[in-house]
Design a protein that fits this description.
The complex is a heterodimer of chains A (268) and B (362). With 268 residues, chain A is mostly helical. Chain A is built from eleven helices and no strands. The longest helix of chain B has 18 residues. Classes of the chains: A mainly alpha (268), B alpha+beta (362).
Chain lengths: 268, 362
């Protein structure tokens, strides 16, 4: 068989990647509090139990609020930076853009500790707000990278044509630029949302006494009886992620079909 | 030229240290088809964009209909542009593209706007295409949409940035004729940027030939072709054979020269272009020389040579003929008239030339 070993390798790779995720629903519906085979039978009681933990609900809401705010703020910042980087020339442009992108490669633990020190020095109390600041810092480079390519693919004369036809700079942006880079904006929102939602280290350091979902989950691992509940929660989150990404991809493809552009594969 | 509509007064443009426009002075008339012609990097597109208002100028003045355009942005100028890429908005329909400039016209109701859009589409031969998606159009159709979109605002000047360069040859030639007709029909001043000298010659009332940020010659196409202002213009426009020449005698009426490969000629003052620098050169267009066939009598001087290369174009044949005393063969063109044989490489050719059609650059 041609490429037989490569096929086996690819198969093993996928199993390694997805087996843990498949275990999630398996144990979420398992009627037993110990995470071990053999399975004990079907139950939905872990899902029911989910609804009875107020601290969990607070953490979920907290995380959602932080993730949504982070997505919007970092996409807005990314939009400004990407536009500046692709449309204007200014002194030390490369250096400035490089510095903005550095958080992509900095170890998160270093960023988290530094932020903690800065926040405490500034006298800012730790809260959801400080987590948002930290998450914006690490999400903005992703937003810039995504939106940069959107702006680069946008023919500059489209904006000039609209301006030439009597529109202002702002209405040109609203009528031409924004609709044409919308797929990039949606990608950026999704990526930033996803990163923020499951980010642990920065949240752990900066969250104070309003834990985010990952921080809350981590604290629950000390109690073995809570693990099946965590599995149930994980199952819901995975299902939601798949739904979210599928929807986003659907809209991205529809957008491409409508403008007749080449499908470059998108971010997802 | 009719009443001047655009006046360029000593326009300079710097990009950092780079001197892109070096003192452009010109007047462009109302209703004129004006071309900016030059090789890439000569500043022709920059000049067009300064007229459109996309680029500021470093010094000088751009006047449009008597008004100084200093600090007037592109969206407030009575100019519209057809972009090289056409810049058709891909997320809008054809009608929405064409009617885009009418958005700000509060004095028109929706019905009046629709009528204007339909008229504009009819004008460019795209009647009934309004509902189509803009991205589904062919190159030629996009070009027409771009034209309709720019003309619907009835600008005083239409600026065209290499509008035909993306089309194939046949389409390009067809659009050239259509553009000329359209320009006559609407009576708007057109300024065309092109690097294609043939396109400029075919379409323009007047041509500004530009090199390195300066206008080398501004004249109507025939003068530019027949009386180029410099050796450089002569070299850029059409094909020109340059032959070394030696001035033997100079008098008030003209000069006697010895042209390498051809022989002696007496040229009058009108055939001489000064200021080309090193030594004298004679310039001959390919069509001013002919091959003498058996049984014909020569209408001019005759020299004998050998055919080095034959390039067959269907209606024309270009011959490269080696003449004694020069290294580079001269290029001449012959119409392939009925009954006339195309000669072969290696044949002996008798080349007829006329001293009256020689240009002297010295």
């Amino acid at each position: 068989m041609r490429g037989g070993w490569l096929r086996i390798y690819a198969l093993l790779y996928l199993v390694f990647l997805y087996a843990p995720i498949i275990l999630l629903p398996l144990f979420a519906f398992n009627n037993g509090s110990i995470i071990a085979f053999p399975l004990q039978g079907f139950t939905t009681r872990w899902f029911v139990e989910l609804t009875t933990i107020p601290a969990l609900h607070t953490a979920v809401l907290n995380s959602l609020m932080i993730a949504v705010t982070t997505a919007i703020v970092s996409t807005a910042l990314g939009l400004c930076a990407a536009r500046a980087a692709t449309r204007y020339e200014f002194p030390a442009k490369r250096g400035i853009m490089g510095l903005i992108m550095v958080p992509l490669v900095l170890p998160e633990i270093i960023v988290a500790v530094s932020l903690l020190v800065v926040m405490l020095q500034l006298g800012l109390g730790l809260s959801a707000m400080t987590v948002i600041l930290g998450h914006v810092l690490i999400c903005t480079p992703f937003s810039i990278a995504i939106l940069n390519s959107s702006f680069q693919n946008l023919d500059r004369s489209l904006e000039e044509a609209a301006f030439d036809l009597g529109e202002t700079r702002f209405s040109t942006f609203r009528l031409i630029t924004l609709p044409l880079i919308m797929p990039g904006i949606i990608s950026s929102l999704l990526i930033a949302f996803t990163i923020s939602l499951d980010e642990f280290i920065i949240a752990f350091f900066l969250t104070g006494n309003e834990p985010t979902l990952p921080v809350y989950l981590w604290s629950q691992l000390r109690f073995p009886q809570r693990i099946p509940v965590v599995m149930a929660l994980g199952t819901i989150l995975v299902a939601l992620s798949i739904l979210l990404l599928t929807t986003a991809e659907y809209f991205r493809r529809r957008g491409i079909a409508r403008t007749g552009a080449d499908d470059t594969g998108g971010f997802l | 030229m009719t009443r001047p509509l655009i006046e360029l007064r000593d326009v300079h443009k710097y990009y950092g240290d780079y001197h892109a426009l070096r003192g452009i002075t010109a007047q462009i008339g109302q209703g004129e088809f004006f071309s900016l012609l030059g090789p890439s990097g000569c500043g022709k597109t920059t000049l067009l964009r300064t007229i459109a208002g996309f680029e500021g100028i470093s010094s000088g003045a751009v006047l449009l209909d008597g008004q100084d355009m200093d600090r007037v942005p592109a969206n407030k100028r009575p100019t519209n542009m057809v972009f090289q890429s056409y810049a058709i908005f891909p997320h809008l329909s054809v009608a929405e593209n064409v009617g885009f400039g009418l958005r700000k016209r509060g004095d028109l109701n929706a019905q009046a706007k629709r009528t204007l859009v339909e008229d504009a589409l009819d004008m460019v031969g795209l009647g009934g295409y309004g509902k189509r998606a803009a991205h589904a159009l062919s190159g030629g159709q996009r070009q027409r949409v771009a034209l309709a979109r720019a003309l619907i605002l009835k600008p005083k000047v239409l600026l065209l940035d290499e509008p035909l360069s993306a089309l194939d040859r046949k389409m390009r030639e067809q659009m050239q004729v259509e553009l000329i007709k359209l320009q006559r029909h609407v009576g708007i001043t057109f300024i065309l940027v092109t690097h294609d000298q043939e396109e400029a010659l075919v379409m323009s009332d007047r041509i500004a030939v530009m090199f390195e940020g300066e206008i080398a010659q501004l004249d109507d196409p025939e003068v530019i072709y027949k009386r180029p202002a410099s050796r450089k213009v002569a070299d850029f426009i059409g094909i020109m054979n340059f032959l070394p020449a030696q001035v033997l005698e100079e008098s008030g009426a003209g000069v006697t020269v010895d042209i390498a490969g051809l022989g002696r000629a007496v040229l009058d003052a009108g055939q001489i272009t000064r200021g080309s620098g090193n030594g004298a050169e004679a310039g001959l267009r390919p069509e001013t020389m002919t091959l003498l066939y058996e049984g014909q009598s020569a209408q001019g001087e005759v020299v004998e040579g050998r055919i080095e290369e034959v390039v067959y174009y269907g209606d024309m044949t270009y011959y490269f003929v080696a003449l004694p005393g020069i290294d580079t063969p001269v290029q001449l063109s012959m119409r392939n008239l009925f009954g006339r044989d195309v000669l072969a490489v290696g044949d002996t050719a008798r080349v007829v030339w006329n001293p009256g059609s020689v240009m002297l650059f010295r």
